[in-house]
Amino acid sequence: MKGVDEVHLLNITVAPAFQGQGWAPLMLEALSGWSRGQNAQWLWLEVRASNLRAMAIYERHGFRRVGVRKGYYPAEGHAREDAVVMSLRLNESSSAWGSLK
Hints:
Elements lengths: L5 E3 L14 H15 L4 E7 L3 H10 L2 E11 L5 E10 L4 E2 L2 E2 L2
Parallel strand pairs: 1-2
Antiparallel strand pairs: 2-4, 3-4, 5-6
């Protein structure tokens, strides 16, 4: 979702049969390139606090944890799970594919 000078990643998934093959970094690289083409300065997302694998991929791409949204996601039963808010400064990033400068 495009904003004034930022893009918000709302959802991204890799089918289980294709996980671990490099698709997530490739999709993030494509999104970062598109976002730069839209003159965005920032890319934002949130991820379930329990999704450590996804957070590791985002961090390798250059995202940094910047906040927590308490009880953001519904969880099993009536429980709620926190969302970790992450951002990437697009003109300073490096990715799993190397420096983007």
